[in-house]
């Protein structure tokens, strides 16, 4: 028992103290509601912050002036701040809020340690603050949903261990022997997120603010999207399914529809989900066998996903009349429906013929936000509306206001998703359109961009509607809290040892439901199989990444330029992966080969083309084109929505890091000679002076030390290690 609870009981009247341990004895204890309240407030705060940033970056894509002319507020730097804020700050705090409330009641005990609860809370908030500071500064790994640098990765690991310690400690001293289905999902979430984070965060530090991935190229891409897809699976999905299994029956006052379906749902979901990551890399340089595995298991994933949706919706049988009146149930119904829609669309998008059109387009953005805004957002709102009156022992201030929030949020989702689907279809079709003569109909990539700018404005309006509903909720929850008082330590009484009340106590699965250790072991086995089957061949069998003799490591200047490319977040809008489609080889050049990326720590294939692919951009334009394009994109591409980067012309390359970077990369297997490393900055300046001299011939004066020179060197290197086809302008 934690110190705080012990003190409460020490000072309690005799009638509140634990009774004897005889048969049928009961004891009084106190649930910790304060930690739930704290995570609830953090959920709301970071939700507003993350969504506000989302609205800003939505309008940045429509109007580059919204980038505000500073290096700290450009789309490339702020976009990962938005994703981290809504995923790990908003949704993360919501997970802790729901788990800390439900776990105590399902186990009929207070959380194992008040101290661990507080460390979990404040540690998580500090991690979020560190992301708010570092990402706008350009301190990033560039790996999607894993952009935070290595010191923060270590902090995340430590706080996640604290959360697990608190959770398993609570399970160890539970009074309810049977573990309800929600707890299964909590256990799987903790274990899988730990595995994902540790494996994907294998990196070699250069200094406090810079590291390189321990994997390169194709292997880095496989690990990253094994992580990226399953971060969605085990951070945005499984914990929320656990919360659905707890809060939906509570709100509807109905039992879960099917106990047996929940068993099938749980085990099949966690086993199948882990295999599906490669469907993010279809038609790339990833080996075909890995792509095929991703497709097969993605299609299979439809069954358990819809099993969960059906179990949720049918829990409302006999209670649909309440949906008309109760805003909480409205939010839950739409949340579960959005989950069903997103988990139907995901397997469909993994089919190669669909993926060929949809990938790299705004279709994927729409798909992601149906899940994020509908499933995660609406279920979080429902939990908040359900929890606050109970934490403060009062009634919800205004159901009408909650209903207004529901409709604003629903309209916001529609105004967001429909334009993005339209934009995605437009992009996918225009990129592939040929004339009767066999030439690209829209050879200039910018023609596609200009067509979808109105859709970006509509998306921004959808974001404003959705955020407006959140502001209504904040006022409603504030007034609710003001009308009551927080019950920080909620008194309850339960038998000393509670036998399972489940009607399925004799079911074959009940054995594991009473044993958290065995549940954790088998869940770990289930999620490890898929990853091992994909990773072992990819890393051990060398033919998966054929060697190309002409591929050489980056020069010291090119490496510094590549790190600037990462710092500015260019990978958020540009891919470096030409797929083997005629439409792409005609537009960009020879398709990308696995062996070209063997020295890329981290890989930069990208997942979205707001701008054209850059893998074959090297040598396509003179140095002066890149110079002017970075100073004023519209001077080279009239109508461009890309922001300008004037600071690159003023800031100097940080040469103090050059040798350290090369040494770390050598440790990771990049064949840099010690002699070259010792003269790295001399080599850097020699190449930089050459670029500066070439620019001077065209009347452009720029000092060799300027960051723009390094970036030009990197861009001119891209795709030049192998012979490329002539590209059409």
Automatic annotation (TrEMBL):
Listed Gene3D superfamilies: 6.10.250.2250, Cytochrome c oxidase-like, subunit I domain, Cytochrome c-like domain
EC number: 7.1.1.9
Entry-linked InterPro entries: Cyt_c-like_dom, Cyt_c-like_dom_sf, Cyt_c_oxase-like_su1_dom, Cyt_c_oxase-like_su1_sf, Cyt_C_Oxase_1, Cyt_c_Oxase_su1_BS, Cyt_c_oxidase_cbb3_su1, Cyt_c_oxidase_monohaem-su/FixO
UniProt cross-references to Pfam families, sorted A to Z: COX1, FixO
Cofactor: Cu(2+); heme b
Domain Cytochrome c: 556-719
Record keywords: Cell membrane, Copper, Electron transport, Heme, Iron, Membrane, Metal-binding, Respiratory chain, Translocase, Transmembrane, Transmembrane helix, Transport
Membrane topology: Multi-pass membrane protein
Catalytic class of the enzyme: translocase
Pathway stated in the Swiss-Prot or TrEMBL entry: Energy metabolism; oxidative phosphorylation
Predominant location category: membrane
Subcellular location per the Swiss-Prot or TrEMBL entry: Cell membrane
Catalytic activity: 4 Fe(II)-[cytochrome c] + O2 + 8 H(+)(in) = 4 Fe(III)-[cytochrome c] + 2 H2O + 4 H(+)(out)
Location of the Cytochrome oxidase subunit I profile domain: 39-486
Similarity field: Belongs to the heme-copper respiratory oxidase family.
Name recorded for this polypeptide: cytochrome-c oxidase
Lineage, highest ranks first: Bacteria, Pseudomonadati, Bacteroidota, Cytophagia, Cytophagales
């Amino acid at each position: 028992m934690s110190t705080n609870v012990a003190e409460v009981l020490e000072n309690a009247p005799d009638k509140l103290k634990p009774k004897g341990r005889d048969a049928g004895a009961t004891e009084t204890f106190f649930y910790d509601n304060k930690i739930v309240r704290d995570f609830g407030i953090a959920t709301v705060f970071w939700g507003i912050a993350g969504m506000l940033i989302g609205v800003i970056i939505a309008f940045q894509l429509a109007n580059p002036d919204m980038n505000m002319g500073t290096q700290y507020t450009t789309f490339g730097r702020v976009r990962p701040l938005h994703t981290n804020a809504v995923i790990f700050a908003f949704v993360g705090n919501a997970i802790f809020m729901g788990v800390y409330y439900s776990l105590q009641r399902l186990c009929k005990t207070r959380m194992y340690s008040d101290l661990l609860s507080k460390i979990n809370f404040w540690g998580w908030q500090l991690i979020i603050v560190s992301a708010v500071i570092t990402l706008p500064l350009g301190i990033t790994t560039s790996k999607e949903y894993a952009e935070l640098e290595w010191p923060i990765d270590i902090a995340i690991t430590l706080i996640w261990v604290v959360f697990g310690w608190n959770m398993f400690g609570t399970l160890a001293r539970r009074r309810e022997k049977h573990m309800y289905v929600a707890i299964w999902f909590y256990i799987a979430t903790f274990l899988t997120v730990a595995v994902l984070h540790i494996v994907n965060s294998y990196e070699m530090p250069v200094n406090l603010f810079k590291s390189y991935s321990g994997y390169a190229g194709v292997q880095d891409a496989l690990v990253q999207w094994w992580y990226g897809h399953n971060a969605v699976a085990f951070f945005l999905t499984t914990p929320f399914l656990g919360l659905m299994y707890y809060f939906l029956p509570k709100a509807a006052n109905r039992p879960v529809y099917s106990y047996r379906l929940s068993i099938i749902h749980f085990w099949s979901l966690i086993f199948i989900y882990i295999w599906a990551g490669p469907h993010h890399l279809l038609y790339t340089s990833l080996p075909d066998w890995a792509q095929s595995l991703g497709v097969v298991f993605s299609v299979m994933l439809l069954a358990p996903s819809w099993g969960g949706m059906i179990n949720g919706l049918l829990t409302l049988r006999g209670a649909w009349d309440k949906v008309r009146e109760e805003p909480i149930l409205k939010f839950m119904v739409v949340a579960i429906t959005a989950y069903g829609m997103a988990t139907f669309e995901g397997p469909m998008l993994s089919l190669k013929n669909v993926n060929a059109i949809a990938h790299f387009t705004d279709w994927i953005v729409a798909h992601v936000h149906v899940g994020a805004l509908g499933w995660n957002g609406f279920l979080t709102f429902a939990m908040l509306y359900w929890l606050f009156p109970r934490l403060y022992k009062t009634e919800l201030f205004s159901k009408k206001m909650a209903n207004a929030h529901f409709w604003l949020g629903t309209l916001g989702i529609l105004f967001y998703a429909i334009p993005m689907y339209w934009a995605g279809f437009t992009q996918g079709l225009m990129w592939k359109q040929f004339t009767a003569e066999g030439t690209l109909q829209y050879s200039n990539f910018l023609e596609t961009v200009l067509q979808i700018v109105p859709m970006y404005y509509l998306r921004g309006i959808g974001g404003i509607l959705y955020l407006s509903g959140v502001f209504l909720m904040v006022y409603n929850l504030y007034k609710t809290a003001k009308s009551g008082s927080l019950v920080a330590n909620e008194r309850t009484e339960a038998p000393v040892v509670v036998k399972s009340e489940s009607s399925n106590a004799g079911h074959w699965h009940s054995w594991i439901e009473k044993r958290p250790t065995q549940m954790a072991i088998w869940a770990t086995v289930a999620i490890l199989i898929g990853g091992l089957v994909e990773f072992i061949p990819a890393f051990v069998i060398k033919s998966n990444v054929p060697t190309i003799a002409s591929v050489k490591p980056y020069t010291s200047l090119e490496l510094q330029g590549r790190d600037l490319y990462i710092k500015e977040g260019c990978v958020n809008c540009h891919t470096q992966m030409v797929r083997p489609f005629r439409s792409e080889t005609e537009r960009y050049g020879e398709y990308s080969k696995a062996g070209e990326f063997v020295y890329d720590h981290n890989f930069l294939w990208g997942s979205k083309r707001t701008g054209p692919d850059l893998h074959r951009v090297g040598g396509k334009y003179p140095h002066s084109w890149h110079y002017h394009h970075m100073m004023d994109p519209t001077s080279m591409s009239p109508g461009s929505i890309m922001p300008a980067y004037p600071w690159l012309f003023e800031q100097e390359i940080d040469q103090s890091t050059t040798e350290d970077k090369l040494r770390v990369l050598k440790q990771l297997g990049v064949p840099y000679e010690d002699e070259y490393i010792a003269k790295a900055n001399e080599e850097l300046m020699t190449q930089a002076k050459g670029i500066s001299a070439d620019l001077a011939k065209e009347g452009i004066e720029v000092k060799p030390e300027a960051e723009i020179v390094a970036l030009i060197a990197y861009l001119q290197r891209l795709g030049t290690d192998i012979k490329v086809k002539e590209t059409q302008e």
